[in-house]
Amino acid sequence: MPRITVVVGLCMAGWGVAAASAAATTGPAVDLQTVPLTTMPAAASRSAPIVTADGNHIACVVRAEPGRMTVMLDGKVVGSHPWILPHSLVIAPNSRRMAYVVQANNTMLVQLDGQAGPAFHELDTAGVVFSPDSQRVAYRASRGSDQWQIVIDGTPGKTYTQVGRPQFSPDSRRYAYLATTGKQWFYVIDGKEHGPFEGAMLGCPVFSPDSQRVGYGIKQNGKMRMVIDGKEGPVFDELALGTPIFSPNSQRVAYAGLRDGKALFVTDGVESAPYDTLGLPAFSPDSKRMACAVGKDGRRRMWLDGQEIGQYDTASVALFSPDSRRVAWRAGRGKQSLVVLDQQEGPLHEAVLDTSMIFSPDSKRFAYIYRPEATSERSVAMVDAKPQASYDLIAPLPVFSPDSRRVVYGARRQRQGMLVIDGQEVGSFEVLVGWPLLFAGNDTFSTLALSGEQVLKITARLKPQ
Predict the structure, then answer these.
(1) Can you tell me the distance from the alpha carbon of 169 to that of 176, in angstroms, rounded to the nearest whole number?
(2) Own/partner pairs for 224-227, CB < 8 Å, 24+ apart?
(3) Which residues are paired to 438 by β-bridges?
(4) pLDDT tens digits, one per residue of 74-118
(5) Number of domains forming the structure of the chain
(6) Per-residue buried b or exposed e for 219-244, using 16+ beta carbons within 10 Å of the residue's own CB
(7) 85 domain-assigned
(8) Within this chain, do residues 221 and 153 fall inside the same structural domain, yes or no?
(9) Residue 189 maps to which CATH number?
(10) Looking at the structure, do residues 257 and 297 belong to the same domain, yes or no?
């Protein structure tokens, strides 16, 4: 197998207490191994590839020839049919099961683990839903016009005019979905109907992390209410999509809504003051703290533990550190953006990628991606308050090692991909594919790269000098 050994020096700067812990680190040697995983057909003839959660396998749907499509897993054909819905390919969380939708003779069926399921008039083009433990399977199926049902573990449920996409609880034991019959709306939870209602909310029902609690929005008499554990909350004109939100310990719950033109959020049954606008609430990992972007008088602030902080034009959802002591959010001023960390404002940028903000596992370090110029799409990683090099693209996004000492991301410059390890560029790949970086221990991580039509698994081992 190809192997490259390079010596790189660390390029880190601390933010607060992080400086002391990072300063003592010495540069590692990088043992970079590339192993061919499979070959990929030309992009025009295949669907977007799917990588298993463990990073060891890759699959896609390929148009092999006129009137024939195949499913390829690690370069081998594992299924061949007249027509496969390209976006229906799904791999289970445990990386061991696969399902996709086949269409033939005016019918559709689910091909699950190589076995064909019953034929239906129509199936969900997004494919099946696997439970978190990968043992259960659910999907939307139709016997004809306005005759939809949910198939759970191979057993079709009651027929409705339309049904929503099913979901499993975190412990995989429970399931729920939204259903309609004419103008009546229902929530079906563990096979039991709740309703009828005049209206309902997309994205509901929502299970708590411990799977014991459930929440959903209903419309009755022209008004909306949130129902938590079967108990109806106060009346609103509208409820915010993306809520309710349960705390990590499942003991607390928050949601937002509009009443008489004003926005309010409700936490544990207690209403906030009225605002002009609201973001989505966020709980800290220990469930003790909460933050929510609020707006009034044309300005945005962050409501944090009962205090309103800052004045901005925009504000994102807050991000808490793993130890719940620190908090960060992206804020906007005019056409520029900045990051607020521990209530301290950072430098202004042309743009900040909200989803790139990340704390290290020990909560001492922090990183995000920003764009420095309005006229360029180039990106820069800010790590511990120090900007690193500029690239045409940064993907995968920064990830810290389990011990928080390393930070790694993928980057591309002038069509050449590379890994960036502690600020130093390592390797050279035609295209670094934007799949996640997976750490296995503190000094070993892996990702995937593309070299021509060949997919490579790249494993980097950092060796102290």
Answers:
(1) 8
(2) 224/199, 224/257, 226/255, 226/257, 226/266, 227/194
(3) 446
(4) 889 999 999 999 899 999 999 999 999 999 889 999 999 999 999
(5) 2
(6) beeeebbbbbeeeebeebeebbebbb
(7) no
(8) yes
(9) 2.130.10.150
(10) no
Residue 27 pLDDT exceeds 70: no
Question: How far apart (Å, rounded) are the C-alpha atoms in residues 144 and 7?
Answer: 64
> Does 163 lie in the same domain as 262?
yes
Residues recorded for the chain: 465
Same domain, 165 and 221: yes
222-252 per-position pLDDT tens digit: 999 999 999 999 999 999 999 999 999 999 9
Query: What DSSP string runs through 325-357?
Result: S-EEEEEEETTEEEEEETTEE---BSEE-GGG-
Taking the C-alpha atoms of residue 330 and residue 328, their distance in angstroms, rounded to an integer, is: 7
139 occurs within a structural domain:
no
Report the candidate in 79, 36, 37, 34 with the shortest Cα–Cα distance to residue 61. Answer: 79
| H or E element that contains 79 | strand 76-81
Q: Kindly state whether residue 226 falls inside one of the protein's structural domains.
A: yes
pLDDT of residue 133: 98
> CA torsion sign, 41 to 43 to 48 to 49?
positive
| 299 and 229 fall within a common domain | no
Both 266 and 307 in a single domain?
no
The residue among 204, 205, 200, 240 whose CA lies nearest residue 219 is: 200
Q: In what helix (H) or strand (E) does residue 454 lie, and over which residues does it extend?
A: strand 454-464
Q: What is the pLDDT of residue 153?
A: 96
Instruction: Point out the least confidently predicted range of 11-25, 56-70, 111-125, 318-332.
Output: 11-25
Range of the domain at 231: 148-169+171-207+210-246+249-275
Contact between 5 and 37 under an 8 Å Cβ cutoff? The reply is no
Instruction: Indicate if 241 and 303 belong to the same structural domain.
Output: no
Tokens of residue 39, six digits: 């070959």
In a domain, 257, yes or no: yes
Q: What is d(CA 79, CA 77) in angstroms, rounded to the nearest whole number?
A: 6
219 and 152 inside one domain:
yes
